[in-house]
Amino acid sequence: MAEAGNVAWDMGSYEWLLEEGQNFDSIHPSLQRQAILNMAYGLYEVVPGKIYQVRGYDLANISFIKGKTGWIVFDPLTAKETAAAALKFINEQLGERPVVAVVYSHSHGDHFGGVRGVVDEADVKSGKVKIIAPEGFMHHAVAENVMAGNVMTRRMFFQYGVLLPRSPYGHVDQSIGKNTAAGNLGLIEPNVIIKQDFEDMTIDGIKMVFQNTPGTEAPAEMNTWFPDMKAFWAAENITGTIHNIYTLRGALVRDALEWSKQINIALYRFGQDAEVMFASHSWPRWGNDRIQEIMRTQRDTYAHLNNQVLHLANQGVTINQIHNVYALPDSLRNQWAAHSYHGSEEHNSRAVVNRYLGYWDANPATLVPLSPEDSAPLYVEMMGGAKKIIKKGRALYEEGKYLHASEILNKLVYAEPKNQTAKDLLADTFEQIGYQKESPSVRNSFLAAAYELRHGMPSGASPKASGPDVIRGMSTGLWLDFLGVRLDTSKTDGKHFIINFVTPDNGEKYLVELSNSALTNISGVQSSKADLTITMNRSELNDVMMGKITFDEKIKAGKATLKGNRKPYDELKNMLSTFTMAFELLPGTLPDKKATPTSGNTFQQASPADTSGG
User: Taking Cα atoms as reference points, which of 64, 326, 17 lies closest to residue 178?
Assistant: First the structure.
């Protein structure tokens, strides 16, 4: 159970997968295999007497390295509750030992969020416990999911099947684990940063070599080599699946070629000697031959994806065609480690084109396209109206031509968002496409869309994202940047002001300017012509950002001071929008009553989206 009273984690909800002899025709057979493998949960010994993993307590694995006096924890899961349960479990089984260090392998939530379940922040601040992370960790742990955090969370309804029942017809797996935990996500700032490409370190008698791999699965990520144990920690760079080059919740497109190159570096730096390879998801591999086989398989899959997609693009295949053209060679397709469970060849191939060439296919007709709600009525009219489209759509559905059916039914739904017959038939079509998909992210997206077409977007359904630790870890500059995103430009015409913003306790100074309906900021600069100077400690700003108290209340209490003309402050306060997830991803699915913002704290920072699973 989570501290908030909800269920944080429940492996039992997937027990139906283990019923003997079951083959579900609503689950791709390969995905069913993956889902069953991810049911193996508990405490596992990876290297006798030295390395252990608790699997199936969260989306990720939590790994324990046995030092001379205590545990070194690698990736403490998403939630405080599941991480604490895993630590309690291993201590019960193997004897209680203190946690002497924590390693964050990378900047996604399921690899740091449970840290408060295994260590006390005071011990980190005193230096008693080391928290080790790659360079750029704090920035990317927060920044990746702030600027578009609201819509990213809304899109997670689809990628992670947030609202789907756990059944053969709903959520079956998340490929790199069962699901994400719904507990208390925290963040304690690391006190040791790995800055070089390779760094040696000995902690509690354990020798480690860290390999920085920025720009791979996460913008800040690192592998680890244990020379005395011939053990290689692959972080989330090598798991039991090919990963996302583009993650469907939304994020910057990743670099498949750099990912391949970093695996290649690890292969020749550590893989020649490794006898065990373990990771933050999926299962370990033992034996040097097997390890090298897996490393080469994933190296070659990412390299093939990058190079062959560009090979085809250089022959004129566009972003709107590549997913129907690109395919892995049989030599890779026949290896489980080359299957795209978490990613998919369809959306990853499009991502490579997008990374190098952008979204445009070079046909001027698609450069300034009509919005779908504007183009759809034209298509419906030219196709002869709703009855003909539904008749043809149903015929295509019966023939098993589900993508063809969705193409025309989608036009009808955009043209007639209240046509429930059309929405139901499109939902049936999406459902059949989802059942056929090997990637659960793609499966979930189709099934979740089907759910919303039938029932609408449930009001009040909002998965918990990150907690106050992540907001506290946000830089002042990023908070100011996001105020610029929130600016309602219908209220800014003709307005101009300059504000000096000072936080004395951390020595920061910012110049904030509203000009031409754009709110900008620059660090380390102050203006002698500022209309207003606002001074408050960053520790006081944290309370405002987390919604504990309003900015105005801080001013009344003397915790923030305004010097100069107060008008720019009042104007800015009234110019800021508060985002909700009450918007459609598909037409005709919004509840009749839209959710409205309830916070009276204009300057409160919305919780960033959850980056768990990458």
Answer: 17
Strand 518-523 to strand 62-66: parallel, antiparallel, or no bridges (unpaired)?
A: unpaired
Q: Structure tokens of 125? A: 């601040």
Distances (CA, A) of 553 to 4, 533, 569, 574, 600: 28, 17, 14, 16, 11
Task: Specify the amino acid at residue 26.
Answer: S
Rounded CA gap, 341 and 440, in Å?
A: 7
Is it the case that residue 133 has pLDDT exceeding 70? yes
Can you tell me the distance from the alpha carbon of 279 to that of 294, in angstroms, rounded to the nearest whole number? 12
Dihedral-angle region of residue 514 (phi above 0 means left; psi in -120 to 50 means alpha; beta otherwise)? beta
Quote the pLDDT of residue 465: 52
CA distance 525 to 542: 22
User: What gap in Å lies between CA 50 and CA 469, rounded to an integer?
Assistant: 32
pLDDT in tens, 180-216: 999 999 999 999 999 999 999 999 999 999 999 999 9
Report whether 267 contacts 48 (CB < 8 A). no
| Bridge partners for 202 per DSSP | 207
Identify the band that residue 462 occupies on the pLDDT scale cut at 50, 70 and 90. Answer: low
Mean pLDDT of the chain, nearest integer: 95
Averaged pLDDT, 542-552: 95
HSE-CB of 29 using CA atoms within 13 angstroms: 2
207 neighbors 252 (Cβ within 8 angstroms): no
C-alpha radius of gyration, the chain, whole number: 26
How many other C-beta atoms are found inside a 10 Å radius of the C-beta of residue 424? 15
Taking a C-beta distance cutoff of 8 angstroms, is the pair 462, 583 a contact? no
Tokens (6 digits) for 8: 């944080």
Contact in structure between 524 and 576 (CB atoms under 8 Å): no
d(CA 51, CA 225): 13
More confident of the two residues 499 and 592: 499
pTM of the model: 0.95
Under a CB-based contact definition with an 8 Å cutoff, are residues 152 and 464 in contact?
Answer: no
For the chain, the straight-line distance linking the first and the last C-alpha, in angstroms and rounded, comes to: 25
User: Helix, strand or coil for residue 563?
Assistant: strand
Q: How far is CA 248 from the centre of its chain?
A: 9
Cβ-count burial of 368 within 10 angstroms (0-12 exposed, 13-18 middle, 19+ buried)? exposed
The pLDDT score that the predictor gives to residue 595 is 55
DSSP classification of residue 270: I
DSSP summary character for residue 320: T
* Pair 74, 105: CB distance under 8 Å: yes
Q: From the CB of residue 407, how many other CB atoms can be counted at a distance below 10 Å? A: 14
Reported confidence tier of residue 599, pLDDT bands at 50, 70, 90: low
Mean pLDDT of 112-119: 97
* Residue 96 near residue 67 (C-beta atoms within 8 A): no
Strands 99-103 and 130-134: parallel
3-state secondary structure string across 94-122? HCCCCEEEEECCECCHHHCCCHHHCCCHH
The torsion angle over the Cα atoms of residues 536, 539, 541 and 544, rounded to 10 degrees, is -140
Which amino acid, residue 24?
F
* Model pLDDT, residue 163: 87
